[in-house]
Amino acid sequence: MPGDNKLELIIQVDAAGANASIKSVNKSLSGLEKEAVSSAKGASKGIDGMTLAMTKAVVAGNAIYDVAKRAFAALKDFTLGAIQTQDEMGKTAQKLGLTVKEFSELRHIAELSGIEVSQLSTGVGR
């Protein structure tokens, strides 16, 4: 057999050990899968919570904006009303030959007495 250059390789497989190893790997993968699903559910709940919080913040922001808008509108109406009242008092005082201060004092006295401003203007103008 001097010319035979053969190499023999003998492989022995422990089928039971291999099966046990495969089952162990499958069990580990199954555990990882469960953990991944649990983590994904937790992340989803966290994202849902953030979305809800952001929605509430937007609703609150809109409510604050609406209140501020109404407050500024009321302030504008009040200011314009005061300007209009001052203008009317100035014109009426000028027609009656009085200063605005004099007319304002007479107007206050008339209101306390239950007399309307139009009656006061008519009475003073005579």
Shape: rod-shaped
Total separate domains: 1
Helix/strand class: mainly alpha
Query: What is the number of helical segments per DSSP (H or I, 4+ residues)?
Result: 3
Helix content: over 70%
What order do the helices and strands follow?
HHH
Strand segment count = 0
In terms of per-residue confidence, which ranges show pLDDT below 50 for 5 or more consecutive residues? Answer: none
Euclidean distance between termini CA atoms? 153 Å
Strand content bin: under 5%
The value of Rg in angstroms is 47 Å
- Average the pLDDT over all residues and give the rounded result: 87
Biggest sheet record: none
Q: Please, could you describe this protein's structure?
A:
- The protein has 126 residues and is mainly α.
- It is rod-shaped.
- The mean pLDDT is 87.
- The chain has one domain.
- It has three helices and no strands.
- Helix 1 packs across helix 2.
- It starts with 14 loop residues before the first helix and ends with a helix.
